[in-house]
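Collaboration report, partner site 2.

Our partner group contributed sequences for two proteins of shared interest, and the home lab folded both. The records are reproduced in the order in which they were received, starting with the first partner submission.
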Amino acid sequence: MIGSGESAWDMLVHALHILPLALLFALPIAALGALVLYLLRRRSLVTTMTVLVLTPIAAMLVGILGVSGFMFTEALTTEVLVCLLVALVAVPAAMILGRIIARRSVWEREARERERAAEASRRELVAWISHDLRSPLAGIQAMAEALADGVVSERAEVADYAQRISGETTRLSGMVGDLFELSRITAGALELSMSAVPLRDVVSDAVAAQSPVADRKRVRVLENASAWPVVSGSDPELARIVRNLVSNAIRHTPPDGTVAVQIGIDGDQALLAVDDGCGGIPDDEIGRVFDVAFRGTQARTPDRTSGGGLGLAIAKGLVEAHRGRIGVRNHGPGCRFEVRLPLAAS
């Protein structure tokens, strides 16, 4: 026992005498704690933090008991009680801190993954857009040079070249418009003028606008409604959603195929479903359908006028801006895109 009146040197000598016994009893506990940590290395951070706190407390308690020769004097009993009280406070604190650190670690990991995914999406978008802009621009340049050099001089040929230049210009304008719309969505600059919008009018107008494209591809577009709900939304953006989905369905449906647009009510939401005949989406790609610039494999028969692959990404952003949900699944001979939107307050 170290007395209170002893000198520092005497206390050091006592400490050197006690040290071997303390190490003898404490080191096995520390080694056992290390083994437990190794065995629990795949468990939660809360478990790890609890073991980390309990190990030194247990080592200290066993060391005190061993040095005292397990003779429970008043001083030893007090020391043991203090260790137990420290454990009662430290263990819950370790569990709380473990949960906080775990949540923060998960959030940081998810943030890094989102950042990496966004960066990969941006790189992919730049690559796709660069390719898609280069092709029509090269065609326009070649046709313009042919007209300027007098290579094409016949009236019919000049008219044909002019029509083709106009078509490519329209395609470029559509791509630039898609990029502008997507930038507004991703930047949070999209402002919606919300009102009660009859979904019947939106769907009818969108289908009518896509009818010429469907006729050229010999694709039938059918409308079917179990109900005509009125939704809360912005008319132009709702029209863009339906138009993008119907256009995408027509584009990926082979000639003589059918695109079905179905409308109904599911609980407190309006349901819009667009079925196509694309042949289905592979399981490893179906989760990326709404990614920017994603087009999928050739199994979905994309054509050269498919644009920058932004239509579905824009549709998803607009649906979410309306506090709705959009999803896709394989269905029948193709796939089904489902949009759920909140009903307008009656």
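Second partner submission, folded after the first:
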Amino acid sequence: MNKKMIALAVAAASLSTVTNAAEVYSDETSSLAVGGRFEARALMKDTETSSNKVTDQTRVRVNIAGKTDITESIYGLGFWEGEYKDGEDLNNRHLNAGIGGDFGKVVYGKTDGSLAALTDFTDIMAYHGNEAGNKIDAGDRTGNNLAYIGSFDLGGNNLVLGANYVFDGDNENTAGEYDVNGYSASAIYAMEMGLAFGAGYGEQDGYGALNTEKAKQAFGAISYTLGDFYVAALYQDAEDTVVDDVLIKDSQGYEFAASYTLGKTVFIATYNYLEDKDNNIDLRDSIAVDATHYFNKNFRTYASYKFNNLDEKDVGKSAASDEFVLGARYDF
């Protein structure tokens, strides 16, 4: 795991980038890179009908990134990433194009919202985690999205600014239930000594028949890296958001994450908590641990276990099961 990338909390962030890709074409002004992953994942948990049921979560992702120089300081870019799981339709995770330069990058299409950079502080596990970091659609990855992100060096420290606006129109959320119309913005400051912190805010129109008010959400995050150790915390406060297809008028949550790298193996633990403040109900309450071994930069294996602390009064017995995942991932 690249701890520096986590600790700087996307200090080198960009919209829709390829982190491990091979250049397949290049000339004097343009280049094209292809990357992706094959990831076998076996999920084991108890259900209402069986004990230790194994579910195949195997997936493949492919991404294509293009870049062309327009002037000495301005370039054009395009990015696509798709994900496929057996028995499901192809999911276009990213599909966008735009321009970039010293000012940052501006793209339009399907791309990440600005709150995603903050949840990345603690979303570091191979499978579990990020349960308290659920984002409104305008702050998450969505289409019809005009987004900006810029990364600026400040004497060895780094400032990352992000903002995006999702237009009202022919654009639905991931469940295809309603149009998304809203915005989000974030700022992250990462210091060379290992400390990084950031904050963000987002709003969007209500959730169709569920709600006519605006959904609002604020995030705060902090992390620190010291040698092979990394620790981070995330806090969120939200109004009129949807969790598990249920409208939650007032929610509050936090997540803590810690990792330690020992040679080629990374050990991670997280704690997630999210509550419905109006009804005094726990929506998320879990501890997760995992271990990932990197054989080389292209291949890794991992094991991840989640201890679900919810009980029947919170979400029902079936939803409160522990989970165990074994995975193998090949990056190209």
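Feedback sent to the partner group on the second submission included the following. Residues 3-7 form the longest helix (5 residues). The CA atoms of residues 307 and 322 lie 5 Å apart.
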